[in-house]
Amino acid sequence: MLSEKSVPVVRATLPAVGGAIGDITPLFYKKMFAARPELLRDLFNRGNQAIGEQQRALAGSIAAFATMLLERPDERPDALLGRIAHKHASLGITSDQYTIVHEHLFAAIADVLGEAVTPEVAAAWDEVYWLMAGALIAAEAELYQKAGVPGGAVWRELEIADRHEVAPDVAAFLLRSPDGSPLPDFRPGQYVSVQVELPDGARQIRQYSLSSAPGRPEWRITVKRVRAAGAPEGEVSSRLHEHALPGDRLRVSTPFGDLSLPEGDGPLLLVSAGIGGTPMLSMLDHLAATGATRRVVVVHADRSAAAHAHRDELRSLVEALPNGELHLWYEEAGAPEARVGRADLGVLSLPEGATAYLCGSLPFMRAVRGDLLGLGVPARKVHYEVFGPDLWLGRD
Question: Which domain holds residue 193?
Answer without folding.
Answer: 155-253
